[in-house]
Amino acid sequence: AQSVTQLDSQVPVFEEAPVELRCNYSSSVSVYLFWYVQYPNQGLQLLLKYLSGSTLVESINGFEAEFNKSQTSFHLRKPSVHISDTAEYFCAVSNTGMDSSYKLIFGSGTRLLVRP
Amino acid sequence: NAGVTQTPKFQVLKTGQSMTLQCAQDMNHNSMYWYRQDPGMGLRLIYYSASEGTTDKGEVPNGYNVSRLNKREFSLRLESAAPSQTSVYFCASSDSSRGTQYFGPGTRLTVL
Fold first, then answer.
1. How many other C-beta atoms are found inside a 10 Å radius of the C-beta of residue A1?
2. Chain center to CA of B36
3. Cβ distance A20 to A6 under 8 Å?
4. How far is B87 from chain A (nearest CA, A)?
5. Model pLDDT for residues A26-77, shown as the tens digit of each residue
6. Cis link prior to B8 (omega < 30° from 0)?
7. Does A30 reach chain B within 8 Å, measured CB to CB?
């Protein structure tokens, strides 16, 4: 069975400071890894994903995550955060089902609170 | 191109009442999913449909039924609502070649 652990339920940080949101997973098979972001009262949006290839993946708004197979981690980082990054961030894993579905297993989420 | 749409946005039910949550996508995706989101627990998969004509249970299917009406639409039914089903429900769809799931805006359901 797969599982995802997000170690921090809330991360407060000052604007323009760096941030790291931690994610660890467990799985007995190869996985795909995702970070989703949820702004208040909205649905989830994909931030970035790792399917294969380069272990460092980037988003268009400055976030990056690195797949570390030996540590079973996929931590999310940003060198300088903005007030607008305040949101809840979810790490998720999936593997390709025999039926071609991509069932996601989510972590419990980390609320990023950026203060001026 | 609306993506994934859900109706209604909000609903209040009394214990024992039934209702159906509607979901539609216009991206020609094969797979569709229903999740519930509860504080501190992330999202949990209720049911999914890998392709038109098939449905399967997820992690928390008890108390729910689903119907994949056609390729676009996937509904979730609560036959006899219970307070434990108070939650925010999200529908999602995915293109099997890319793996990314696209989420609707959610339905906030309260069962009294």
1. 6
2. 7
3. no
4. 13
5. 987 778 899 999 998 888 999 999 887 788 888 888 999 999 988 899 999 9
6. yes
7. no
